[in-house]
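Course assignment 3, question 2. Fill in each field.
Student: A.L.
Task: Predict the tertiary structure for the chain below.
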Amino acid sequence: MNDHRFNPLALVLGFLRPLDPVLMLVLATLLGYAHVLMQSASPERLDSQITHIGIALAGMWLLAWLKPQRLLSMAVPLYLLGVVLLMAVELFGEVSKGAQRWLDVGVARIQPSELMKIAMPLMLAWFFQMREGHTRFIDFVLAGALLLAPVGLILIQPDLGTSLLVAASGLYVIYFAGLSWKLLIPLVVAVVIGLGSIVAFGDTLCQPEVDWQVLREYQKQRVCTLLDPTRDPLGKGFHIIQSTIAIGSGGLTGKGWMDGTQTHLAFLPERHTDFIFAVLAEEFGLVGALLLLAVYVLLLLRGFHIAANAPTHASRLLAGAITMIFFTYAFVNMGMVSGILPVVGVPLPFISYGGTALVTLCLGIGILMSIQRSRFVDKT
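Answer field:
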């Protein structure tokens, strides 16, 4: 006679089965960091952030259950939906703080550009899977066109930060698919010349009457502020100046939890979102910052391990691109907070307050778990 008694241990093990232990340990550590920093930076937002975490973890768990091929089968519909929604934003979107990025769908206000951070690498991984073994130069051109369409729509909103993240997510897939690094040399040379020219002739180029053509005025001001924040210390340069003061004043071990003066005397702007790394550096010092970097390195190593051992070409491309997206988030945020990159509104991954970015990043973790789990499921 079969024993159908309730077994809570089996239920828990079944629930945890798709979750990768290493990724869960890293994620738990990062969310622990976030909780501690949020208590200092903005305790009134803790309850809503816990809600965001719950939604993000639920989405991660659901994606972890799906097989990679099932995820790839959704690539084209998700990509087309994202492009249509971005076009709808351009036509009917709501304007807030000078940007037209949101779309009211009745039950909620959504930001379709966030969808493309997942849909873009999925779409290109599916695209190159269809051409596995006989990829031609024209395929890279077509992939570039697929990438440029949503990136262009996001740029005109305008949203430079998100457009860079979406562009990066697609470029990683294209490069991992076999694009020769030699083809990237002209782009790298152009970027170096452009940056060098801005640094060398910054005083002239940053004059009010000079129109940069390719950038909007506020984007030009962000670059000029990066070159010399003291140009407008109480205005456009205030963010960077206060952030670098906070980071520098933390020293080796920091001022102590909840004892950061830049944070608690309200000198540090956006301290719970884009500039939360400055809160960490001020209160926990270089030691706290290095420990966080070590956790991010562990996340990247695990992601690349999953990519290297993925069972299919498409899942390798997808895992590699998602891992590099985590790197891009962290590098750009820390760079802009420390004053070596312009402020572009990119959150610190898994740490900054906010629901949309956290859900997107956790969905990326879920995809990595799905790919890792498929190695063993496919063998049974």
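Instructor remarks: The radius of gyration is 22 Å. The chain has a mean pLDDT of 84.
Grade: pending
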